[in-house]
């Protein structure tokens, strides 16, 4: 299309309310416009990118026998009451009432709707397995919308749901879905997306993977092994540590006046922080009961693992002073009723320093198994950067940040059971189907693609998802020769099925190029009286890999060949 | 795809909650599933039809330079407060608050969002005209959801918004949009869609057309001339009547004890109802003030025209007895403060019977212009079936019912002015852009297509929007010869780009054919040991126009040719 027809006002200044590159560049380039907190409209370039991503997703979903359907955006509360999530999900589920006073919710995920649709439609084991999916608008009443399309409230998501008659069949399909996801990110020109093991959170189920695009603006921390293929969300990564042998020593109370932190304690007693046993206090959300977590002094508590271990929500303790000698808490002499958790990092340790349970005193010579009879240890510590890989055992863990662009879950029968969806097995016996679910956020994938593919001047879109494939900059197009050469090329490329954005505005080269940079089209062709004088047009790629003159005779052929080569890249 | 993989349970019984054919057949055929009042999920066949309709719409919108965008489903109330519709639209606009207590609405139409997106993006007259559109989910809190997808609360709609610098430019574009709509309905295989003049309702603006699919289940009444091309929604159709000349007579009060209806009055006084002047009482919604409408006794009030004339909402009068001698109300002696409206049907009339304004009395000999000085008449009567065409003057009006499947409006500057969207004209002076808007309901088009194209056994989808193009019924496919011939045909057709649904289930011919009828695929190929024995397969079309044997040698070629012919039809 002609650039002068494209709706959008592009500009140079960094908008004051934008912090991350994708938000800045997609605002400056007129891709998105903020309508309300976490709510955006898409201008044509973003819509084009989204549609290309959606098309790739559809093709890969269809290739694994997915059947496209539509679930409602607005659902009656009754569906969510059936599954139990009306009560279990927090206020990110937007609840409201219609004119008749009936309770409704805005769909943030569609397990309930999928079971509702499939229930009654697949009554025999012969109907299984099947997968249904949609690409649709969702709403999550996110308290901290931020970073443009990275964390929004309203978003377009592909969500898929598979139904199986056995765990083995689910697992086999899960592998196919996993591979489809790898294909999708590759085909979107974003092969650096990695998969990590993840926590299944409010979705239920046991096995889950997240697909992460590593970028410093990500909110998730990932543990990635540089020696093997181990990758995990830090939330669930197993922390493996090796302890020094500090020898045996008797338990001895020492006076440590006002020494309340591990660093102060280690300095005061001339030991390494690793030789201490630290206490971290929590309270259960349900009844405010205290939970004391003990772990090696240099480690931190991974609260997701702690919650999963306890099977309930906890928060850092408030006003523990009334019950504990804070700063001096140790495993000995804890108040009654306090839940106690020992991290694996204390297993087999001896001769540690730990709190004595009274103000201004610590113990030295603490030995876990000796001093705490029948102790059991669990994995509740955060994995360390440079720490030990739980898979290959090398000190090769690197922590990095990433944006979650997709996820896959093995759900089990959580939803089919609660919503009473059954089929008859080969023996005529009713059974609950086993489910998997599979999501990709379209807008977030687009924005995080921009995060990892941009320079100071704009996005550098991969050919596969770029809003257009070729950008023609015709400088001084008011001159007949330029207008004619540009028009001929524009027509020829369009005829060849290439998507072209054509700029023949009467503006300076600077304006033309900065607009082209913001639109991020991979292949750019520049022509002007100067280039025509040397019987050529200039070809550049947005990533600066190519910059050369092309003779007029072969220009169309060469551009088409380049577009096709980049499309396959 | 293989039919045994298709999700959906098809059945024969008419569901108890379905009244109209499309709702019955699309439920029985597993196209749709009701999730809540006016809220549906779409099974794969309906999704496929919807996507085909959407693709046709996109192509036609792009052909008139439409740029596809996305507006939010959920919008902050502030946008609707800017336009004034937060207050002016009733409870069909679903309003609610998020977790922070901020007011939100569910988009039922997107004029506000379109102006919000375009505002600031088109600041110079050189940026005009432009049109932006989306295909998206909308929600209207409809109090009487009914008839499956015909009247729902959540629906997918294509909505387009054009912006212009002059009324002439809008009108020229409006004509292009009108033609695009004609193309869309033709290309969807529904050429019987007609356009009618319509009321612009809550949208504002003056000129509007609705596109109606005539069907008896429609809620709109249309006035269609059988002699010329006049077509109008009855709501706005001009009522033209010819009055008899009843001669002159003096005004005379006559005793008509208990005679309160026109029919009783006409019988009592031996006159035709046409020789009476009827009163109909309303009250203004704003202040309950009375409105008395007078019109010829055989006619009815068109309340839309009345509202437009008064410029405010009215409702039929309640408890008028306290103020009026009901049943005996006439133009003479009306209470003070009552708004009076005379319909055009009374213009020039003489010697009519009308109420005397006191119980049990009427006047005879009433002559409007003589007895009501300086009277002005307006058009507030309903057009009659068999009545006079306001365009060609023949008695050729037929009333029919239709479903509104699309509409186009000339909006003017209602939204750009209230939301302060301006551009600089050639003289550097700020101006409000002039808008048009253009909608099509995708699901309603699908369902009303089914209304006009079905038999007792299922929908008869036009090739252009059918969920599949060819349906192969392989009877006794457990026999090797059938399986092989069917498989070969299935592969060959798919390779040729034909969309095929392939039924090789071990079920009876009856089950197979009734499922095929419900899926409504235009071309059906039946093979069995019997047909193969005569070296043939049977070709039938869903509309029963064709039923013949095709020899095995040429079957692929003939089917492909037929599909292509029907696609172009």
How many strands in all of chain A? 31
User: Uncertain regions of chain A: pLDDT < 50 for 5+ in a row?
Assistant: none
Radius of gyration of chain A: 29 Å
CATH class of the largest domain in chain A: Alpha Beta
CATH architecture of the largest domain in chain A: 2-Layer Sandwich
CATH fold title of the largest domain in chain A: BirA Bifunctional Protein, domain 2
Fraction in helix of chain A: 25-40%
Shape of chain A: globular
pLDDT averaged residue by residue of chain A: 93
The oligomeric state of the chains shown is homodimer
CATH superfamily of the largest domain in chain A: Bira Bifunctional Protein, Domain 2
Biggest interface found: A-B, 66 and 66 residues
Question: What do these coordinates show?
Answer:
In chain A, strands 3, 7, 8, 9, 10, 11, 12, 21 and 24 form a 9-stranded mixed β-sheet that branches. In chain A, strands 13, 14, 15, 16, 17, 18, 19 and 20 form an 8-stranded mixed β-sheet that branches. In chain A, strands 28-27-29-30-31 form a 5-stranded mixed β-sheet, sandwiched between helices. Chain A folds into 3 domains: 3-237 and 399-451, 2-Layer Sandwich (BirA Bifunctional Protein, domain 2), CATH 3.30.930; 252-378, YbaK/aminoacyl-tRNA synthetase-associated domain (YbaK protein); 468-568, Anticodon-binding domain (Rossmann fold). Chain A is globular, with a radius of gyration of 29 Å. Chain A has 15 helices and 31 strands. In chain A, helix 2 (44-63) crosses helix 11. Chain A is an alpha+beta fold and 569 residues long. At the A-B interface, strand 1, strand 2, helix 2, strand 4 and helix 5 of A face strand 1, strand 2, helix 2, strand 4 and helix 5 of B.
